[in-house]
Design goal:
The complex is a heterodimer of chains A (304) and B (243). Helix content of chain A is 34%, strand content 30%. Chain A is an alpha/beta fold. In chain A, the strands form three sheets. A six-stranded mixed β-sheet of chain A has the order 6-7-8-3-9-10, with helices on both faces. Chain A starts with a strand and ends in a 6-residue tail after the last helix. In chain A, 38% of the residues are buried. Chain B is globular, with a radius of gyration of 19 Å. Classes of the chains: A alpha/beta (304), B mainly alpha (243).
Chain lengths: 304, 243
């Protein structure tokens, strides 16, 4: 099971919202990032059959998604941006409606299953309009999951949740990623780091990065920062002699080194500390975050 | 289609709008038929329900746009249309499900007026002295009328995400299609030449024909065609949404 996008474009009037985007997403969680208005939602809407592409093609499980047809749409569970819901309906009534739309053979069991899965049980008797944002989000997720689709398209599923709700919803998404194709758009970089194996970044309609998460982080890294903290004073000139150190700021028993990313100096540094009896307390390399990579790529400081 | 129909109808019946629609219809007709002296059956001295069927189209002109105004406009405004269109439902199923729910609600509003029929039946002298055939025809005409108005209302509602626009547009279109052609046929240009054809384009001509108790194939074809055309156009509007 996979989704294949080939040279996908969408034009609204003169604006090219999605421009020649191609990628393949298989089982697992693929993060879909980009600044607001970059074309994430438009791309997702084309995959889910809501918006027709201007050009290019989408294949779902080897079959073209356009012209869109009910059979293809039933393979997808979709949580749209802003999570639209019928606020006047009750949760069970609403899930029953969605189960009916999918013509599920055993709607009751399906409802029980998703209610359990997303943790809706405590609020099950309520009207959707009376729910807190976190629970509404769970209802949105429940309707996307009710027919156990092989593909999940989630457009900012965790926006506006508090930290506890965040980790619960993420856990659900992580579980889904074990067996389903999950395309997840988000603004929260920790989420990408926590959930996704692979990251797509879209900017101004164009796909500017398509990398495993580790490579995305190192891509940005021409240099890495190494922090050294000892009990006694550090000798700056000895540090600067180590191959790979570009610059260093030594301040008594602390040092901050800018190091060529290809050189691994930490073992050498550790050995030096022992040889010189500086009393090593801490040796740490700064992780470049996805956030840094995201900013660098979308502000076009580095190119894909 | 069934699940959309059920959701819509239950939506009407679990909110104010359903009961308001039925209530308004009955109160207005009740007042006109039994209270206001100028139109009251009781001072008319004939056992007939003609006034009911004379006035009902005017009441429908307000009532049905009120029922249909939200059907698609609200889905758009709440963005739930995206939800529906990405489910395994075709635009036609969405439109028909909603349409039949609106027709069913209109029928529910008409249903209690059988009490009026019974009242007049009992009051007749001798008892039961009224033209039941014509009344059955009239009820059928009323149902056909409601179905066309609902189709027009759905179309109007599909054009905007504003319910007020949906209401006003539906009221205007219903008025034009129902009465407009009748009035238009009185224009000097048409009188004596095309007035008969122009009249037949409007709903009123066919409504009156059925109300006489004559259920003719051309009238039925007319109702089905007009309702079908507006529903078809509504699905086109929904499909256009994807572009």
């Amino acid at each position: 099971m996979e989704i294949v996008l080939d040279k996908l474009s969408k034009t609204f009037g003169t604006q090219r919202a999605v421009d020649d985007v191609s990628f393949t997403a298989g089982v697992g969680i693929t993060g879909f990032l980009g600044p607001n208005g970059a074309g994430k939602s438009t791309t997702m809407r084309m995959i889910t059959g809501f918006l027709e592409p201007t050009s290019g093609s989408i294949q779902i499980d080897g079959k073209p998604a356009w012209p869109t047809n009910p059979e293809q749409r039933s393979m997808i569970g979709y949580l749209p941006e802003h999570n639209p819901l019928y606020t006047q309906m009750f949760i069970r009534e609403y899930l029953g409606f969605i189960a009916g739309v999918h013509k599920l053979k055993q709607p009751k069991q399906a409802i029980e299953r998703v209610v359990e899965l997303v943790g809706l049980a405590p609020e099950l008797g309520k009207q959707i309009g009376a729910l807190s944002k976190g629970y509404r989000q769970r209802v949105g997720l429940a309707q996307a999951l009710i027919h156990d689709p092989p593909i999940l398209i989630l457009d900012e599923p965790t926006s506006g949740l508090d930290p506890n709700q965040l980790s619960e919803i993420r856990e659900v998404i992580r579980k889904m990623g074990e067996s389903k194709v999950v395309l997840l758009s988000t603004h929260i970089m920790q989420e990408v780091q926590a959930l996704c194996k692979r990251v797509l970044i879209i900017n101004k309609g164009k796909l500017v990065a398509d990398d495993p998460i580790e490579r995305l982080q190192s891509r940005l890294a021409g240099e890495v920062i190494v922090h050294l903290n000892c009990q006694r004073s550090i000798n700056a000139s000895m540090i600067n002699q180590i191959k790979g150190v570009e610059r260093s700021v030594v301040n008594g028993n602390r040092a901050r080194l800018s190091v060529n990313a290809k050189a691994e100096i930490r073992p050498i540094l550790a050995q030096l500390c022992i040889d010189q009896n500086w009393g090593l307390l801490e040796l740490r390399q700064e992780e470049t975050s996805v956030e840094d990579a995201f900013q660098a790529i979308t502000q076009q400081r580095i190119t894909a | 289609m069934g699940s959309v129909f059920r959701k819509e109808l239950l939506g009407f019946l679990s909110s104010l709008i359903g009961y308001l629609a039925i209530g308004v219809f009955l109160v207005l007709l009740g007042l006109i038929l039994f209270v206001f002296p100028d139109t009251s059956l009781l001072s008319y001295n004939f056992a007939t329900l003609d006034q009911l069927f004379e006035i009902a189209p005017w009441v429908f002109l307000i009532l049905i746009p009120a029922i249909t105004m939200g059907s698609l406009a609200e889905e758009r405004q709440q963005r739930t249309l995206e939800l529906l269109l990405t489910k395994p439902l075709t635009p036609l199923q969405i439109v028909l499900g909603k349409y039949f729910a609106c027709v069913a609600l209109s029928a529910l509003a008409i249903l209690p007026t059988f009490v009026y029929y019974y009242t007049v039946y009992e009051l007749g002298s001798p008892k039961g002295n009224l033209d039941s055939g014509a009344i059955i025809g009239s009820y059928l005409g009323l149902l056909f009328l409601a179905s066309i108005f609902c189709a027009i209302g759905m179309f109007a509602s599909s054009l905007s995400q504003n319910q007020i626009v949906g209401f006003l547009l539906a009221a205007l279109l219903c008025f034009l299609v129902h009465f407009g052609f009748q009035y238009l046929s009185n224009l000097p240009v048409f009188v004596g030449s095309l007035d008969n054809i122009v009249q037949k384009l409007g709903i009123e001509y066919h409504y009156r024909s059925i109300s006489r108790g004559l259920i003719l194939v051309p009238d039925i074809i007319y109702f089905l065609t007009v309702a079908g055309w507006f529903l078809f156009t509504t699905t086109l509007v929904l499909k256009k949404q994807r572009a």
